[in-house]
Specification:
This is Transcriptional regulator, AraC family. It comes from Aquimarina amphilecti. One of its GO terms (molecular function) is sequence-specific DNA binding. The protein is of the alpha+beta class and 310 residues long. Helix 10 packs across helix 11. The longest helix is centred in the middle third of the chain and has 26 residues.
Length: 310
């Protein structure tokens, strides 16, 4: 019997990636920018694609004027424009149900374009490159104009005759664009307390269901990535949203939940500290004891002595 093995396509260069998308080849081997040319619309990529990966960053402002594109299950405030960030090796896939007729812009650059610059480290600190499409940055009209203005400056330099200053100027504009995006994402977090609260409620409910179903004994401490996927958000976005709203990340919320459950179990005299740790999914009891003391200020043994029921 023969088995067909499907190999995901990976594009090492910007040119090969754009050629696959059936888009115009770049003026620069590691940088391209698309803005509306004919009839005010961006050039449209191929209608559909199986999963693919590449080695490029992409920053796109999508202003859909025809057709629909849903962003997970989330309803957003701003519908004027959505700023989407894609990082190297992120899996991309779309089908012919998505209509790409749009205004806006698309900036694509190979990761090697940043090598030897300050931006190569700076860009890794921006969490929004780890967000999935359903957490796109939705801009107000004023924010949209600011971002478009920066993109226009990048295009002007991109179309100019290249000289020794060109790359530094483009990188400076890119850095400014990313800083504004970071500011606007903070606004989005703050303006969506209802969404943040909803995510926290869902997160806590998932934890409760996981513990009550007995999965803790079978599978250990739950995977934050899988929990986020069930909520139709990325792990990084969930953590950033909860951090903005509550001051604590998903890891911290999970740890606090575990400590709260541990307190009840510790008051059962027939359980040793090690047994409590294993019951909570900790592979090493020492880690449980360190975490407990870090969060509560006393060790599990001290807690048991302090609150022991007579």
């Amino acid at each position: 019997m023969e088995f067909l093995i499907s190999v995901m396509k990976h594009f090492k260069t910007l040119s090969s990636y754009l050629d696959y998308l059936e888009l115009p080849l770049p003026e620069h081997p590691m940088l391209s920018i698309f803005t509306p040319k004919v009839n005010g619309y961006l050039p449209c990529p191929r209608k559909s694609s199986p999963p693919i990966t590449n080695e490029c960053y992409s920053i796109s402002l999508k202003k859909f004027v025809k057709g629909n594109l849903n962003y997970g299950r989330t309803k957003y405030d701003f519908t004027n424009g959505a700023l989407i960030f894609i990082s190297p090796r992120q899996v991309l896939q779309w089908d012919d149900n998505v209509v790409f007729e749009q205004k806006g812009f698309s900036i694509n650059f190979h990761e090697d374009f940043l090598k030897g610059t300050e931006l190569v480290q700076q860009i890794k600190k921006y969490g929004f490159f780890s967000y999935s499409a359903n957490e796109a940055l939705h801009l107000s009209p004023k924010e949209e104009r600011q971002i478009e203005s920066i993109a226009e400056n990048i295009e002007i330099e991109y179309q100019n005759n290249q000289d020794e200053f060109s790359k530094d100027i483009i990188l400076s504009h890119l850095s400014t664009l990313l800083k504004y995006a970071n500011r606007f994402y903070e606004r989005q977090f703050l303006n969506r307390k209802e969404l943040s609260n909803d995510l926290l409620v869902q997160f806590n409910q998932q934890l409760e269901d996981y513990f009550e179903s007995g999965q803790l004994h079978e599978k250990g401490i739950p995977s934050l990535e899988k929990m986020a996927n069930k909520m139709s958000v990325s792990q990084r976005y969930l953590s950033d949203t909860l951090k903005s709203e509550t001051g604590k990340t998903t890891t911290e919320h999970l740890q606090l939940y575990l400590i709260d459950v541990a307190k009840n179990i510790l008051l059962k005299p027939n359980k040793s500290i090690s047994e409590v740790a294993y019951e909570l999914g900790f592979e090493y009891p020492q880690y449980f004891s360190r975490l407990f003391k870090k969060k509560e200020g006393i060790s599990p043994t001290e807690y048991r002595k302090l609150y022991k029921m007579n």
